[in-house]
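Consider this one:
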Amino acid sequence: MHIAVLNMAAVECESKDEASPADLSQTPVFSEETVKKFEEHETSGVPLKSSWTFWLGRAISATTVEEYKQNLLKIYTVNTIQGFWAVFNNIPSVSAIQVRYNYHLMRDERYPLWEEPVNQNGGTWRLKCHKSDTEKIWKEVVLAAIGEQFGECVAEGDEICGVTASIRDREDVVHIWNTNAALASKATILEKIHSLLPNVNCTKFYKPHQSHHAYGRS
C-alpha cells in the first residue's frame, strides 16, 4: 500500500482530543465520542493488510518481563487506513511525549516485548536521531510499516512486525522490528530508510533481541 494512498485518508481524520503526556499515561485515553468515531472508521474504511496496535510504554531499569508488561498501555488496534489516521491524529505527537517513554505500533496485537514467543528470535534496526528529526522519521517509518513497504526489503521467511519511537534525554531512537534476526543481513531495510528520508542523517545499526543485556528478564 503506497504512502500517497495512506495520506489521502488523513484529510478527513484531523480533529484531535486535548491530551497531554500525563493524560496519555492514564486510562481511558479517549472520550466516548472519539472512540465512536474510531469505530466508524474501522467499519467503513479501507482495510490494512493486517491490524496494528498502538502502545505506550515507559522505560524502567531492572524491570522483569511481567512488570514491564504491566506498565504498557494499549492505546488502540486499527484495521483500516482511516482508523489509523483517526488514532494517529488524536494522540500527542511523538515529540510531545515525555522522556523515557516509548510509542510502539505492533502488528496484530502482539506485545512490544523481546521475550514474547512471536518476537524472541528477531531484533530491531535502530535509527539514533536528533530530536528535531524524530517526528519526521517516526511518521515515515510508521506509514511504511502499515503500508507494507518493508515487505520487499526483508528476506523470505522474515517479516516486519513493529516500530517503536524511544524518547530519550539527548537523542531519540526509532526501532524497526523484524521476526528473524538470522535473516537480517539479507535485508535492505536501511536502503529503504534512506530512500524515504534522503536528507535525514542518523546513526543506523541492527541489534538482535537476544544480544541485549536485559533479554530474558525473569
Remarks:
- Helices lie at 3-8, 21-24, 32-44, 65-70, 81-88, 131-146, 189-196.
- Residues 1-28 have pLDDT under 50 and may be disordered.
- Strands lie at 47-58, 73-80, 101-107, 123-129, 160-166, 172-178, 203-208.
